[in-house]
Structures are given as structure tokens and as C-alpha cells.
Write a structure and sequence with these properties.
Order of helices and strands: EEEHEHEEHEEHHEHEHHH
Number of strands: 10
Bound molecules: zinc ion
Number of helices: 9
Shape: globular
Strand order of the largest sheet: 1-2-3-4-5-7-10
Length: 285
């Protein structure tokens, strides 16, 4: 197996036609800081442009898939300068809501959509905790396979924000369960997630990697162009149902929440809802 190490992710080729991108900040529960966001993006591009790769696996180094976006990230990367921007918004450093709107368009909304539209099948292998921004990454994949111990949660309503930036909850969970889980900030289990239709398969933790690899192997037997067209067919159908319009609209509400919190608390979230681990350490944007 060949392995290429980016700063925060591993790019592996476990067998012919399969690439595996592994988030590799286990000490930070694979929290996605800006380095990881752009490493993930570079790894996705590498997989997309390698004609030998037909299926892409997205995984996290044990013990947890991802704790979400890194709220302690000081943001030392200059957006649009240190890495090529994926969006055309610009003015990422502007004062006030202008800059934050542009930043979140770039690193969350446009980035996640870009991964969602990667023209090859992607499979998320999820174990342990999958929180907020971790959910966005898993949702961006075509298939989700979870281990029995996996749990999913979007707790950001407690932080004064109406859900994560890419608001797929009603699509992934159904509207009623989406409201319950957002209002109550409760985690849902892998089996619950499968019952909602959000997860394809649930397997024992020690069978996760092999199950996902076997599924990738099976998919890789299909013609590459038919796979690409099939993914495009499903994604465009969902877009035609209004998903893209809905997520754009909700992104505006999300930004209103950030603007409100900044006026009210001097930071983009309500600090009373921050997890214990980051309270007092979260970056005050
Ligand atoms: Zn946000």
C-alpha cells in the first residue's frame, strides 16, 4: 500500500482502484482546522484526477471519526492566499459580517459541496463520535458505513446557531426528527441513523475497515463513466428537488445567528453552549 502524508491527512492506496483519505489528528479527535480542510480538499482533488482511482473512502484515525470544526483554530492560513480558494467570494478578511460570510462560504459551504460533487463514488467510514462539521463531511459522501459504537450529533443550537453551515438535516433525517435532534442537541446512534436512512450499513467496530473496503472493491468493478453519470443523476435530482436552494437560504439564517452572537456576546457563538473542552479557548471571531 502506498501512503502519501499531507500535513493532517493520510492519502492511502489500499488496493487497485481505491483511494482512502484518513483524517490524522487523533489527538484532537480529528477536529478540522483550516490545514485539514485544505488537506482534505487536496486529497479529494488527487483522487478525482487519478484515472486509476474509481472509489474514494473517507475515514478518521481512531478513536473518533471527527469532532467537527476546530473552534480553537487561530486561522493562521490566509484564505485565498496560502491555499487556492474554491469559491469566488473574496474579501475573506473583511471586517464585520462581510468577512465571516465569505469565510464560511469558502471553507464550509462551497468546500463541502465541492466534495459532495466529486465525480467518483465516496464512502464515509464512521466510528466513535461524529459531531457537527464531522456530520457535514460524512453527509458529503455518497455512502455512510458506521460502526456500532458510532454516534452523530449537531449540538450548535446550544451555541446560538441554527445548525451547521451545510443544512442537510431535513434531507438526511426527515423534518420531524431533524427538529427533535436539533432542538434537544441529542446524539443519535448508528442504528437510529440507519433507520432514518442516513446510514447505509452498521457493522461491528472491528469489521468497519474491511466492510468498507469490500464495498469499494465491488463498486470498482463497475464502469467508471457509468458510476460518474449515476452519481451525477442522483445529485442533480436532489438539486432539482430544491436541496441547493434550501441550503443556500438556510446559510443566510446561519450567518444572521453569527452576526447576532457577535453583537450580543462579542464572538460568533453563544459561549454558554460551548463544550467544556473549548470553553475559554475558542477563537473569538
Ligand atoms: Zn458558522
Amino acid at each position: 500500500m502506498t501512503v502519501h502524508a499531507f500535513e493532517t491527512v493520510l492519502y492511502e492506496r489500499p488496493e487497485p482502484h481505491v483511494a482512502r483519505i484518513v483524517m490524522n489528528r487523533p489527538e484532537a479527535r480529528n477536529a478540522q482546522d483550516l490545514r485539514m480542510t485544505y488537506d482534505l480538499n487536496a486529497a479529494m482533488d488527487r483522487a478525482a484526477q487519478d484515472d486509476e482511482v474509481k472509489v474514494v473512502i473517507v475515514a478518521g484515525a481512531d478513536p473518533h471519526f471527527s469532532a467537527g470544526h476546530d473552534l480553537r483554530d487561530p486561522g493562521t492560513l490566509r484564505l485565498g492566499r496560502d491555499r487556492p480558494a474554491v469559491s469566488t467570494w473574496g474579501a475573506y478578511d473583511a471586517e464585520g459580517a462581510e468577512g465571516l460570510f465569505a469565510r464560511e462560504q469558502e471553507i464550509y459551504l462551497q468546500m463541502t459541496r465541492r466534495w459532495r460533487d466529486l465525480p467518483k463514488p465516496t464512502i464515509a467510514a464512521v466510528q466513535g463520535r461524529c459531531i457537527a462539521g464531522g456530520l457535514m463531511l460524512a453527509w458529503a459522501c455518497d455512502l455512510i458505513v458506521a460502526s456500532e459504537d458510532a454516534s452523530f450529533v449537531d449540538p450548535v443550537v446550544a451555541m446560538g446557531v441554527c445548525g451547521v453551515e451545510w443544512f442537510l438535516h431535513p434531507w438526511e433525517l426527515g423534518p420531524r426528527k431533524a427538529k427533535e435532534l436539533l432542538f434537544m442537541a441529542e446524539a443519535w446512534s448508528a442504528r437510529e441513523a440507519m433507520a432514518f436512512g442516513m446510514v447505509n450499513r452498521v457493522v461491528p467496530r472491528d469489521a468497519l475497515a474491511d466492510t468498507v473496503l469490500a464495498m469499494a472493491r465491488r463498486i470498482a468493478q463497475m464502469p467508471a463513466f457509468a458510476l460518474k453519470m449515476t452519481k451525477e443523476a442522483v445529485n442533480r435530482s436532489v438539486d432539482a428537488m430544491g436541496q441547493r436552494t434550501a441550503t443556500d437560504t438556510v446559510f443566510g439564517l446561519h450567518q444572521l445567528c453569527h452576526a447576532h452572537n457577535r453583537q450580543r456576546f462579542g464572538m460568533i457563538v453563544d459561549p454558554s453552549g460551548l463544550p467544556e473542552a473549548v470553553r475559554g479557548k475558542a477563537v473569538k471571531r
